[in-house]
# Entry
Amino acid sequence: MTRPDTPLLDRVAGPADLKNFSDSDLATLADELRAEVISAVSETGGHLGSSLGVVELAVAIHAVFNTPMDKLVWDVGHQCYPHKILTGRRDRMRTLRQKDGLSGFTKRAESEYDPFGAAHSSTSISAALGFSVARDMGQATGDGIAVIGDGSISAGMAYEALNNAGHEKRRLFVILNDNEMSIAPPVGAMSSYLSGLYANTPFHQMAEGFESALPGPFRDGARRARQLVTGMTGGQGTLFEELGFSYLGPINGHDMDQLLPVLRAAHARADGPMLIHCCTVKGKGYAPAETSADKYHGVAKFDVVSGEQKKGKSNAPSYTSVFGKSLTDEAARDPRVVAVTAAMPSGTGLNIMADRFPARVFDVGIAEQHGVTFAAGMAAGGLKPFCAIYSTFLQRGYDQIVHDVALQNLPVRFAIDRAGLVGADGATHAGSFDVAYLANLPNFTVMAAADEAELVHMVATAAHHDEGPIAFRYPRGEGAGVEMPERGEVLEIGKGRIVREGTKVALLSFGAHLSECLIAAENLEARGISVTVADARFAKPLDTKLIGQLAKQHEALITVEQGARGGFGAHVLHHLAAKGALDRGLRIRTMTLPDAFIDQASPADMYKAAGLTAEDIASTAMDALGIVPAVFGAVRA
# Structure
């Protein structure tokens, strides 16, 4: 592939080199940087639209501030690709999101220019304030700078940080990257407020203390702009000013003639917390991204000229689409079925239900805590809420799950997408812990789908379960290609199933690793070892009858799950220990994700690193039986 011509960018080894460029050179550099981002991501896939929206902002910040002494924190981090290129990682950009390559997010272990790791939203202001306190207490750190989007600033944690920063009155820079769109169009009153700040406004508000440092048009219009932009006069100010921040903006985040003087003035004179409001366009400068509904938020490899993405083809539907269609079917049968998502309608498949029942799907924005309690309120009011949130993001609402759902025994249905290891997004997005953090809660029912057909059954089961909270988990990507039922079957709570019968070893799977267990069984059978394979379906309540049967009738029992220690296997061990099965010499092994965070790679490579391949399962079974073959090769179906 032909690389873009980038003579200025070729001279940049790090941010210090930007200090030698004129303002016009910096504008040209931004154009070259945008072309380089497009070229690199076309080969790797990744978060393109958000990165294109902050190209000028990344150049301007690094040109004005003194990173890495000044601590630049990118909220979420999916917009950090221009930053990575400018900070000495250009030569590795084509390893982005790949095994042993660059992370798709900021990562402390990767570069001194990434002072704080991020891949979940709304953490930047808190972290930047922490750096500011460290600076004021004598540590070797400079200014704290947070870049946060209009979607991320809608989350409660951002307001907690804004409130605390205003109270502390320390020198701190919060740059609001306002593109009116996160992954999905932003929702809520905050989005409307930000839009109203700059709608049809010819001038840009500047705090009075900065007016003398600005070019003439900005200086002359500053006082009048405050009234035009905010609709306020006299001593009144914006919401941010009421919180204790000096407010600058809104300014055009793609115009270096605005960005550079504003950042320079702020850097030179700020003596407290300051919010700089920049308006940008997600996908800026690449027509296929600008015209796409999702602004190319997350893309596969693509053709630069046409923008056509090179996605793999599969005959099996994705788990996400199966969930969306199944829930829509349940909603058609029961008008009490409603759905809640936290800024991920398409990512969770709820867009399918929203197309048919728009008044029954609620996108609360990036606010998982609120979303969980909101669903609890609807359940208390007699509705049947499905709270569809990725496993890794549901962690953010754990106190609400405990206090507002489990403690009150409310029938909220949790649809947990992206369970297990997810590939290119890496450790920050892995769904490792949900079984452990849900199955230990009183009143909860916890299920895991072995394949897409089982997911259909679990949606139906959850829809008909009114006795308390219930959760079901399923992985990212395509299903196993099994035959699909016309309608979901309501499963008996706490009842597993035997998939394959044998006599010597029992493999008890919880979730989508059932397919690997079946391959392992073939490997073992080829070596004369008779194997039973069972699908637990439930981690809570356990099918104690099935577990007792497997323990009694086999020499070894191996549990397998796509989750961390302390999950399904731990519950099985606890039950067997209580029943004395371990005293009778049962050889049992639990196979879980390791006690470590696993970096990005393909899901297959990640599960290999985790020791959870079919070969690993078969080897574990043989070890439990005391068999150590000289050569153990895999036999794959």
In short: Confidence is low (pLDDT under 50) at residues 197-235, 630-637. The CA atoms of residues 183 and 294 lie 6 Å apart. The chain has three domains: 57-77+104-285, 319-473, 498-624. The radius of gyration is 27 Å.
